[in-house]
Task: inverse folding
């Protein structure tokens, strides 16, 4: 299944090519809505800085910090050092890249500044950052079912406090608890020799494009 936002970035790249420029496109998405579009205009404008991502961010205009924190930047090509710096400067939480074979920017450094779990079809498919890499190593060592989602919950107890004990921490209001691996003992069907629990203290959680939690704040009644 194609990603409509990545397709929109590709459309921007095609537009740039038709203008005689370098065919790289980008879009910025907040809450399932495109708020900025852009493509590489270095040739068209004789610019030193108008890469696709920079053009996109400029066209999006000034946004609130909370909007950047819940945004996703799509780019048809791995962002360079300059554009990656802009991602970190504005606190953009997620970057989706079309390809990084032609050119690869400082992806590892950007990942090292945070951990992001990417789940598709009921399984963890990517975990970035130092802790994320170790998580993936432990789960994949149990075989293909080691990355299956076993539990997912949102904390709703406003009196729960952070103690370092899972059963207490997962209840904290606005947190997200997700577990991977074995689920047979809790009503599931997966039997593997690993079950790892994660608690995210200030998550952004959306289901089918509808936000449930933003930065650790519940947005549903």
Result:
């Amino acid at each position: 299944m194609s990603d409509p936002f990545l397709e929109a970035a590709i459309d921007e790249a095609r537009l740039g090519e038709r203008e005689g420029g370098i065919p790289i496109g980008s879009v910025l998405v907040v809450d399932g809505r495109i708020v900025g579009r852009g493509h590489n205009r270095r040739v068209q404008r004789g610019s030193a800085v108008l890469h696709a991502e920079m053009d996109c961010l400029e066209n999006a205009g000034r946004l609130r910090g909370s909007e950047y924190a819940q945004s996703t930047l799509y780019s048809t090509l791995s962002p360079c050092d300059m554009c990656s710096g802009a991602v970190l400067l504005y606190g953009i939480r997620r970057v989706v890249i079309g390809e990084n074979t032609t050119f690869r920017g400082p992806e590892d450094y950007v990942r090292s500044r945070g951990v992001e779990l990417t789940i598709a079809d009921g399984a963890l498919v990517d975990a970035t950052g130092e802790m994320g890499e170790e998580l993936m190593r432990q789960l994949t060592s149990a075989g293909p079912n080691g990355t299956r989602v076993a539990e997912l919950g949102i904390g709703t107890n406003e009196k729960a406090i952070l103690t370092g004990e899972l059963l207490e921490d997962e209840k904290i209001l606005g947190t997200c608890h997700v577990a991977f691996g074995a689920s047979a003992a809790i009503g599931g069907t997966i039997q593997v020799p690993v079950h790892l629990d994660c608690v995210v203290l200030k998550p952004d959680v959306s289901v089918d494009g509808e936000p449930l939690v933003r930065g650790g704040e519940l947005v549903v009644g």
Remarks:
- The longest helix spans residues 4-18.
- Residues 54 and 86 are 8 Å apart (CA to CA).
